[in-house]
Each structure stands twice: as structure tokens, then as C-alpha cells.
Amino acid sequence: MVWIIWFIAAGVLLVAEMLTLTFYLLWLCIGAVAAGLVSLAAPDAVLVQVLTGSLVALGLTLFSKPVVSRFRASQGFKDIGTDIVGREGIVVQPIEPGRYGQVKVGGDIWSAASVQQLSVDEKVRVISRGNAIIEVERWEV
After folding, report:
1. What is the pLDDT of residues 40-78, one digit of tens each?
2. Domain map of the chain by residue range?
3. Exposure check for the chain: N or C terminus, fewer CB within 10 A?
4. Using CA atoms, how far apart are residues 45 and 32, in angstroms rounded to an integer?
């Protein structure tokens, strides 16, 4: 029954991955699936399961970095995240300094932070982007 725990962990990591827009949790998810598969074959070998999951996640992390770097450097690659800086958005959930709100930019809704108090329907400008959180300021013409 240990395999259930591995697959639940993989599902939780997959959902978290979709919220963070990175690949690190995806590699851990795949590692958990590998450990779950080992668990199905050898239910009592917990150490082997942990080692398999760890090695798969570590291998994916180490070997995917050069591939991702080459992909990002390729001609025609356009990172949606850097394209968002400078664009106009609309606050859909209030933002207070030190607390996150939400901003709609184009058709996407982003978690956002600001040093200013911003209310719903206020126009904002994206000034930077982290992994999944953008920083905004009041749009002033």
C-alpha cells in the first residue's frame, strides 16, 4: 500500500508544479512516480523506492538544464514571462503592500505584489516578473 502514498505525492507535486510554472516540482513528481512503480514491484523495499525516486529526480534536474538552456537560446524562442514586463493589467483582487493580490494581464490572471495599495479595477503596469508572481505599480499616464 506504500505505492498509494507515492502516487498521491506525485499528484500533489504535479498540481503544485502547475501553479509555479517551473520544472523542478515536475522532476520530483516523476521521481515519485518512479518510486511508486518500484513500490508496486517491491513493496517492502522502501529504501530502494526512496533511492530510485531521488536518483530519477536528481538525474532529470541535472540533465535537463543543458537541454533547457539550448532550447531557450534557440532562434524563435519567446519567453512569455519576459514579454509581460511593461504591459498594462487590471487588478482583480486588491493588493496591499506585503500581501499578494491578483492582476489580469491580457487573458491571464497572475498573483501580484506591489508597494502601493491597489484596488479592484485599477489599471497597473507590470514592472517585473518572478517565477509565478509579478510586481506591479499604478498605471499613471
Report:
1. 999 999 999 999 999 999 999 898 888 878 877 777 776
2. 1-74, 87-138
3. C
4. 15
